[in-house]
Design a protein that fits this description.
Shape: globular
Protein name: Secreted protein
Organism: Sorangium cellulosum (strain So ce56) (Polyangium cellulosum (strain So ce56))
Radius of gyration: 16 Å
Strand order of the largest sheet: 6-5-4-3-10-9-8-7
Number of domains: 1
Strand content: over 45%
Distance between the termini: 35 Å
Largest sheet: 8 strands, antiparallel
Order of helices and strands: EEHEEEHEEEEEEEEEEE
Number of helices: 2
Helix content: 10-25%
Number of strands: 16
Keywords: Signal
Length: 212
């Protein structure tokens, strides 16, 4: 299978597209397992998107009035733009969240909004519902005292999904993560990724974030 590196993510070749449908069934099992403890809980709303004028991508997980937003920078911005936002949203889907001097504000539909930097610059973002049959969504793992995040999304000019993720550690350390296997290879555990740290390669398992 052939991989194509693009903007810090890995795009799977068209040959693996058929395998994604099989992976979707596994992801569905993961989601159902997460809901088993509360069969009455509605399924979460998961969205993926981009930040205009940057190489950053984002993912939103919303449910029962709570929201988690993860912004993941690309090759040029993973050390400066990557951050987590958590809080609540109003019934319209609008929210205003803060993280280390940054503010994320969503419009009433919840699928567009703005990021405001500590310096006052505003960056528009746009999101759309994740295609769960193509394993799109937000994945995470806790390592080094920090939460590593990964966004799986399908670029506008691609037919198969890509992963863009950032590892973080104490002391404001950041590094990009890449999948170890094709994104069509997803089991009940999640997605295996790796990160280069001081010349050493470290492996992590990121799992779907299905509750905000």
């Amino acid at each position: 299978m052939r991989f194509v590196h693009r903007s810090g993510g890995i795009v799977v070749s068209r040959k693996s597209a058929r395998a994604l449908a099989r992976a979707a069934g596994v992801l569905g099992a993961v989601l159902c397992a997460a809901c088993a403890a509360d069969p009455e809980a509605p399924p979460p709303e998961i969205s993926v998107g981009t930040v205009d004028g940057t190489d950053a991508v984002l993912a939103l997980v919303r449910g029962e009035g709570a929201v988690t937003l993860y912004v993941c920078g690309g090759v040029s911005s993973y050390a400066t733009m990557t951050r987590w936002f958590e809080g609540t949203e109003d019934p319209s889907g609008a929210f205003s969240l803060e993280s280390d001097g940054w503010t994320a504000t969503a419009d009433p539909d919840g699928e567009s909004g703005r990021l405001r930097t500590p310096e006052g610059a505003e960056l528009a973002f746009r999101a759309r519902p994740a295609a769960l049959d193509r394993i799109e969504g937000l994945y995470a793992a806790v390592d080094g005292g920090c939460r590593t995040g990964a966004v799986v999304f399908t670029p506008d000019d691609a037919e198969a999904p890509a992963l863009q993720g950032t590892w973080c550690g104490a002391g404001d350390l950041y590094a990009q993560v890449t999948p170890i296997r094709p994104l069509s290879v997803l089991d009940r555990r999640g997605i295996e990724v790796q990160v280069e740290l001081s010349g050493a390669r470290k492996k992590l398992l990121v799992t779907p974030l299905v509750r905000p």
